[in-house]
Amino acid sequence: MQSSVTSLFISAPDSLKLHVRSYGPRSADGVPVVCLPGLARTAADFETLATALASDGDHPRRVVALDYRGRGLSDYDRNPENYSFQVELADVLAVTTALDYLPAIFIGTSRGGILAMLLAAVRPTAIAGVVLNDIGPVIEPKGLMRIKGYVGKMPQPRSFEDGAEILRRLFDAQFPKLTATDWLKAAQRAYKEDKGRLVPTYDVNLAKTMEGVDLERPLPPLWKEFDALRNHPVMVIRGANSDILSAATVEAMGAHHPGLDTLEVADQGHAPLLMENDVIARIRAFVERCERTPATGGAMPAAPAE
């Protein structure tokens, strides 16, 4: 069954317009899924996954993917200080409340996973399950420094093909198996046409959110926030080449959360693309287990080894 896709615009608490891509029938009775992208990413990253989850045979479900303020089709904020976790968490709550999507299963890539952990800490009843895509309570400073080096600072491409080459040079070490077609599709997600030129699909003022990142001063760990998920089903996906989420952190997460569902994606870094059939199948299985697990229940039993 093919999933229907619509664009919706919802007001943030300060009236700024937020864009979401909505997939699947509004009448679906499964637990909704909310997809939250990375720092400088958009809802487009979840197109393949959201379509697959929303059109899932006999169990279609509602799925939305959010453009944070300053990304994608959402309004840009005139005050870059509002590109903060506090403001973006309020935006996520505004969107999910307006859509009557709570409790929901949250799939958070990088920054999106941090927002999901923060949400669990402030409103645990909003959570039916969480997929953390290449993010955890401990964030490796070298990876943050790498991201700081390119957000808002990438050269302007002359064409999407040129953009594909820029991305390949930046990320080929972490994604060595991507093809020329893959890089072109990545460029089409990362850039948009504006007044005859290609620009990033985000406000370049996002770079200001990284100004405080310092290799000598690691970010404080988020174990308290992660532990707020102890009574909820949690899956963590790690790119085998990731420089943001270490294998040691994943192991420690398992000690904190018995029953943690883990998946490592070979030949991918930060962050896994969530487009491959086997990865989507694992996420779908996790979502189905969340739907069978009461929102107020305990930790979910571990998934069988595959």
Give an overview in words.
This protein is α/β, with parallel strands linked by helices and 306 residues long. 32% of the residues lie in helices and 18% in strands. The protein has a domain at 5-140 and 220-292: Alpha/Beta hydrolase fold, catalytic domain (Rossmann fold). It is globular and about 50 Å long.
Strands, helices and their partners?
Layout lengths: L4 E7 L5 E7 L9 E4 L10 H8 L8 E5 L17 H14 L5 E6 L1 H12 L4 E7 L7 H10 L9 H12 L8 H11 E4 L2 E4 L22 H5 L6 E6 L7 H10 L4 E5 L11 H16 L14
Parallel strand pairs: 3-4, 3-5, 5-6, 6-9, 9-10
Antiparallel strand pairs: 1-2, 2-4, 7-8
Helix pairs in contact: 2-3, 5-6
Can I get a quick summary?
The chain has 306 residues and is α/β, with parallel strands linked by helices. Helix content is 32%, strand content 18%. It has a domain at 5-140 and 220-292: Rossmann fold.
